[in-house]
Design a protein that fits this description.
5-stranded mixed sheet, D-Maltodextrin-Binding Protein, domain 2, 4 domains, Chorismate Mutase Domain, subunit A, 404 residues, alpha/beta, single chain, 7-stranded mixed sheet
């Protein structure tokens, strides 16, 4: 019995060992990855749905905008057609200013106010041209800063006529060939525009509006900056960039021409030439912007006068301009200006010109806040007139803010 038992034990162990040896090794746990299609497919579908939805909304809004803009124009036409004075159709500074302020207050962005204003300006311009086509002369050629100021005030639907000189703008209006004129009157860097102020002493025209245009000059050319040997522009533009040009283009010769547009034409046609002009000129004449905003004063603003024969009504935000001649004697100017202090009228600008002919003395161009019909301003003008040899009121007009 003992032997049988001893023999069975090893046999049992060997079978167990054999079974263990033959048993397959345990499988390593396999990490289960999420199938990419299950994640990507839903995202693709969402993106397609979102794009389609956005496109659908844009089309619906475009349709609404077209209908609303046409409705706005029809209502504007009704309003303008009822006006007895056709000049009031194109010259409504109170209404325009109220509109700009209302648009700015109603807009929450992201559309810039200047863009919103441009849209509504063209709607008004198109409506006004249906009632009366206005003709406005400006110091050309097209795409000069005077042209941009004319577009800002009258819109592109007006008949905007370029002329060669500031004197020609005055003559066109004085002879009745144009309803209005647009001329530069003052620059924040260079000061007065002599030709404009001089013409007010020659012709009996009024200032009936203003445009303050932010003027940014650019170096435009078809040549590389290192190849530019000549830089063209009108004298005022070159003067407003003199420091930048002397530092950055010391070897290039500056040449004065009649306008920035003429300079751009030369830069287009002449190798090695460049122009100092605005971005619109770069687009119009197919030029590269070699350097942007090269004006020495980053807040460079040119004020343009709208000239005509309109008498404006007070807007509570006005300026008045006068021409003053006083006795050529010590203290005469100080005595005359005392009128502004006495009536608390803010004098904003004064320029002097020698009198023409053999007479000694000066003419003074004065610009001050308020409308000539305001009681306080009226009293100040009356007091000023008592001290004057000659006093001509050039007009009261609504003030405007700078426009980019």
């Amino acid at each position: 019995m003992a032997k049988k038992i001893v023999k069975r034990v090893p046999a049992t162990k060997s079978k167990v060992v054999e079974k263990v040896k033959k048993a397959p090794p345990p499988k390593k746990p396999v990490s289960v990855r999420k199938a990419p299609p299950e994640k990507v497919a839903p995202k693709t579908i969402v993106r397609k749905k979102t794009a389609a939805s956005t496109e659908s909304q844009i089309k619906a809004i475009d349709k609404d905008l077209v209908q609303l803009l046409n409705k706005r124009m029809r209502l504007s036409l009704e309003q303008m057609t009822d006006l007895k004075d056709r000049h009031a159709v194109w010259f409504d500074p109170n209404g325009d200013q109220d509109l700009w302020e209302r648009l700015e207050a109603d807009s929450q962005g992201p559309l810039p106010n200047v863009t919103l204003r441009a849209i509504f300006r063209e709607v008004l311009s198109a409506a006004r041209s249906r009632v009366k086509v206005v003709r406005a002369a400006y110091l050309g050629p097209p795409f000069s800063f005077s042209h941009l100021a004319a577009i800002e005030h009258f819109g592109k639907s007006a008949d905007l006529v370029p002329v060669n000189t500031i004197a020609s703008v005055f003559e066109e209006v004085n002879r009745g060939h144009a309803d209005y004129g647009v001329v530069p009157i003052e620059n924040s860097t260079d000061g007065r525009i002599v030709d404009t102020l001089d013409m007010f002493t020659r012709l009996p025209l009024r200032i009936c509006g203003e445009v303050q245009l932010a003027v940014h000059h650019n170096l435009l050319s078809r040549s590389a900056r290192s190849e530019i040997t000549e830089i063209y522009s009108k004298p005022q533009a070159l003067s407003q960039c003199r420091d930048w040009l002397s530092r950055n283009m010391p070897r290039a010769r500056t040449i004065e021409v009649t306008s920035t547009s003429t300079a751009a034409q030369l830069a287009r046609d002449k190798p090695g030439a460049a122009a100092v002009a605005g971005k619109q000129a770069a687009v119009q004449y197919d030029l590269q912007i070699v350097a942007e905003c090269i004006e020495d004063n980053p807040h460079n603003i040119t004020r343009f006068a709208i000239i005509g024969d309109e008498a404006t009504v007070p807007t509570r935000k006005d300026r008045t301009a006068v021409l003053l001649q006083i006795p050529h004697a010590p203290g005469a100017l100080a005595d005359a200006l005392q009128s502004f202090k006495n009536f608390k009228v803010n004098l904003t600008w004064i320029e002097s010109f020698p009198l023409r002919g053999p007479e000694s003395g000066y003419l003074f161009f004065l610009d001050f806040e308020g409308h000539q019909k305001d009681p306080v301003v009226s009293k100040a003008i009356a007091a000023l007139e008592k001290k004057a040899v000659r006093l001509s009121i050039l007009g009261s007009y609504p003030r405007s803010g700078p426009v980019e």
